[in-house]
Amino acid sequence: MSGDRAQTSLRIFLAEDNPGDVELVRVALREHAIVCHLSLATDGFEAKRFIERMGSDPDAPCPDLLLLDLNLPKADGHEVFAMFRAHPLCVHTPVIVVTSSDAQTDRERAAALGAAHFFRKPSDLGEFLKLGGVIRQVAASHGLLPPG
Q1: Homologous superfamily of 3-141 in CATH?
Q2: Model confidence pLDDT, tens digit, residues 129-141
Q3: What is the pTM of this model?
Q4: Sheet of 117-120: strands edge to edge?
């Protein structure tokens, strides 16, 4: 990405069905001073519809980063991930899996689809807020934010 892009806010697409976790993601972003426009899908069907519209609908911009819960109602998170990765605009878009699952099969499937990071949702607030640091690190490593 160009240097100009690093100065503007990130476009983050969050697929998460738990309203409490959505709020925790927002807090983690604020705690780590990540300026962003957050698009939200609250189930797998909404996420898939958003992906179908990306690039052709101004209400569905291609994100700089996807935060994806694997345990979504109405469509499996891995299915959403595969669909996102197959979209021509998102082949190289970093994906951070944010899930309560700690199953090795979920980790392996996410890695096979090219997840930039696998973040297991902790029960502790302080640990959850570390997600902001993970987002900052992944975004910086992809040239979306300045390092640091």
Answers
A1: Response regulator (3.40.50.2300)
A2: 999 999 999 999 9
A3: 0.91
A4: 36-41, 10-15, 65-68, 95-99, 117-120
